[in-house]
Amino acid sequence: MKTAAIGPVIRCEKLTKRFGAFTAVDAISFAVAPGEIFGFLGANGAGKTTAMRMLCGLLGPTEGAASVAGFDVFTQAERIKQHIGYMSQKFSLYEDLTVRENIRFYGGIYGLKTAAIREKTDALLQRLGLEAERNTLVGSLPLGWKQKLAFSVALFHDPAVVFLDEPTGGVDPITRRQFWDLIYEAAARGVTVFITTHYMDEAEYCDRVSIMVDGKIEALDKPAGLKQQFGVSTMDEVFLHLARGAKNVE
Amino acid sequence: MRTVWFLIEKEVRQLRRNRTLLALLLVAPIMQLVLLSFAANYEIKNLNLAVVDQDHSPAARRLLDKFQYTPYFRLVQVRPSSAAADQDLLSGRADLVLVFPPRFERDLVRGGQARVQLLVNALDNVKAGLASSYASSIVQAYQGEVRPATVAAAVGEVRGLEVVPAYWYNPLLNYKTFMVPGILVEIISLIVMMVTTLNIVREKEIGTIEQLNVTPIRKWQFILGKLLPFWVAGLYQFTIGLLLARFLFHVPMVGSVALLYGIMAVFLVVPLGLGLLISSASQTQQQALFVAFFFLIIFILLCGLFTPIEYMPAWARAFDRVNPLVYIIDIARRILLKGSTLRDVLQPVLTLLGMAVLVNALAVWRYRKTSG
Predict the structure, then answer these.
(1) What confidence score (pLDDT) does residue B43 get?
(2) What's the total number of domains in chain B?
(3) How many interface pairs between A and B have CB atoms less than 8 angstroms apart?
(4) Per UniProt, which keywords does this protein have (chain A) (predicted)?
(5) Which one of B90, B120, B154 terminates a domain?
(6) Does B159 fall in a domain?
């Protein structure tokens, strides 16, 4: 896990994205430490995905400053990409390739050696319990398995940070629980996890949580701290308290 | 290059599992070449002929026989008057009407200045042109036969200049020799361009492109990885097409087939790159398809295969300077039929090379890993 700088692995200073007159992300500032699980919450349309896409180098920011893994979001977007993993809310492995072929492809694109790919593939399949499915087309796997596989592929090249955009949408509670086991494993290895979610129980699992409303970060603290701050007993209530004031709700 | 290889491997695997696309790439062009080459015929047989004979002479009868001896005409009606024959043209029973005026034989024997009238249905102007030229040559040949040499001598007429055409490079004016190489490159261009046109934008629709865009893959690697598999498919199609041209259509191959191959390898990069450019600029497959059709139809209809470029107005000829099909069809014909060497076709080859570089540079430039 090479990072160019010691200190926060993600750092935003007044990062802003405007589409014409609409400000999707409004001068957000925060820092995420290595190995942290950082929850990025907000109602639909609050600007979470836009902010995440800027940090991944998929979307050019308008102003402010941000760095990921020590590389500048404005000028070194392509350098960032070698050091991050990304899993979008839209499932995006190739359904017409087998499990093994998908892993091999992404391993290859990230420049892993053939022998390393083979070794890591075996280890990964064993960890996921997917050994019997190695030659199954990804399209015919159940959704929960696909999500776990997509997460593992996003981590295959040992990135410093992994960005997860609503990774557990539409999967059952048991699978979600298993998915979070994978997240904890990754964080324990030192991978920074940046995750958006709509499930408030998942928010509780995060080390720190930020809540976005109308493009701004309205709250940022440990789950316990947030509950204390708003004088409520669940993250649900914290979220409702903040999101109710929003203008841009879908 | 290793990254490119992984991309190629992935494309080939996906292709192998997509039976329809595979059939379209490997079998369809062969079928199309065979069907279109047999159908694209500039020879017309069995034209329906109506005759108005107001002379009733042996001379008229003999000329009529000559028409019937050829495979081009079939006598369907003999009418007493032009008016009745006009009805035949109108109703479509006849394609052309041959009118023998009264005193046809007498004029022929006396002065050699006999006239027949030919009425041709010119709704289809290609057919009309061929019908009248076939008919004229029969009439002229007949005139030469019956006119006694003595008559010509007596009136002191100098025997008219006769043009004897020698058709070089395609001595039998075999239309297949002319058409097959053109149809072949046209079909291949169409298919490879469609395949690449739909490729990138399909990944956009499914969402897999985003996963690729967060990887450190370089833009040129991406485009090259998308191009090479279909470039090989195009060369495969060309190989089969050449074999068919040689052994089924007996197209002569005077020049170097290896040279033509090399040039084809350069040419293919043009439609492939254009497809990739359209694909990376489009948001949906439907959009991409319509843009590609827009270009393909113009390229194909103006490429000179169906209308000689020399007949086209100046603006169309100007456009054809950037029509890659014009260059490759010209090169293919020149090498196959005429035996042209690289030096002979260097100019169009360099033009194609320039187009290939330009179009693909644009495709790389237009492919965006970052939006906004």
Answers:
(1) 67
(2) 2
(3) 82
(4) ATP-binding, Nucleotide-binding
(5) B154
(6) no
Residues B193 and B128 both lie in one domain: no
Asked whether residue B225 is domain-assigned, the answer is yes
Residue B63 CA to residue B55 CA, distance in Å, equals 12
What domain range is B145 assigned to? 47-154
Q: Are residues B209 and B244 in the same domain?
A: yes
pLDDT value at B72 more than 50: yes
Burial B323-343 (b: 16+ CB within 10 A, else e): bbbbbbbbbbbbbbbbebeee
Calpha distance B124→B294 (Å, rounded) = 26
Specify the higher pLDDT residue, B225 or B171: B225
Whether residues B237 and B346 share a domain: the answer is yes
* CATH number for B135: 3.40.1710.10
pLDDT of residue B162: 57
**Is the same domain home to B344 and B232?**
yes
- Complex prediction ipTM: 0.89
**Three-state SS across A86-147?**
EECCCCCCCCCCEHHHHHHHHHHHCCCCHHHHHHHHHHHHHHHCCHHHCCCEHHHCCHHHHH
A60·B211 Cβ contact <8 A: no
Q: Nearest CA of chain B to the CA of A162: how many Å? A: 11
* Among candidate residues B94, B123, B154, the one where a domain is terminated: B154
pLDDT tens readout for residues A159-215: 999 999 999 888 888 989 999 999 999 999 999 999 998 888 899 999 999 999 999
* Same domain, yes or no: B34 and B64: no
Instruction: For residue B80, give every residue at least 6 positions away whose Cβ sits within 8 Å of its Cβ, in sequence order, or none.
Output: B52, B54
Nearest-CA distance A148 → chain B (Å): 15
List all residues 6 or more positions away from B232 whose beta carbon is below 8 Å from its beta carbon: none
DSSP B124: S
